[in-house]
Amino acid sequence: MTDYFEIRHTVGFEETNLVGNVYYVNYVRWQGRCREMFLKEKAPAVLEEVRHDLKLFTLKVDCEFFAEITAFDELSIRLRLEELTQTQIQFTFDYVHLHPDGERLVARGRQRIACMRGPNTATVPSRVPEQLREALAPYHAAGSVNGKGV
Q: Which of 12, 22, 139, 148 has the fewest C-beta atoms under 10 angstroms from its C-beta?
């Protein structure tokens, strides 16, 4: 078993700029997509909570670029848990170019989210749902969870 959750993606022309490399905003889009697919596949009950009053607020997003990719490159976007507190989660995302000659890390991103509940005018922090904690357990980077366990 791997220590990451993965989605695969083939880069399309619409994701590239005039020069032909992938436009930076797409990396952030792929983070969101990977996070959504993780919830759909590994924590579907959390999606039901999102339909009611759970809100997952994105607090911070970043991405560091190491190499360019272009249209029709095959990618693996790999989500790992970096930190888990009572109310927040921080993920890392590795963007790996899947090439016949081998894998190459082309970018690495992070995303921090907060769990919140309540009406939009009175939203307050909320504990990370237990099903989400359990779903994340296999995907934490060694030694990165803040000592409280997953």
A: 148
- The separation between CA 101 and the C-alpha centre of its own chain, rounded to angstroms, equals 26
Cβ neighbours for 39, distance < 8 A, ≥ 6 positions apart: 46, 47, 50, 132
Give the pLDDT of residue 146.
Answer: 45
Per-residue burial over 83-114, b if 16 or more Cβ lie within 10 Å, else e, is bbbeebbbbbbbbbbeeeeeeeebbbbbbbbb
Q: What are phi and psi of 118, to 5 degrees?
A: 110, 170
pLDDT at 144 over 70: no
State the Cα–Cα distance between residues 57 and 94, nearest whole angstrom.
Answer: 21
Which structure tokens are listed for 132? 């989400």
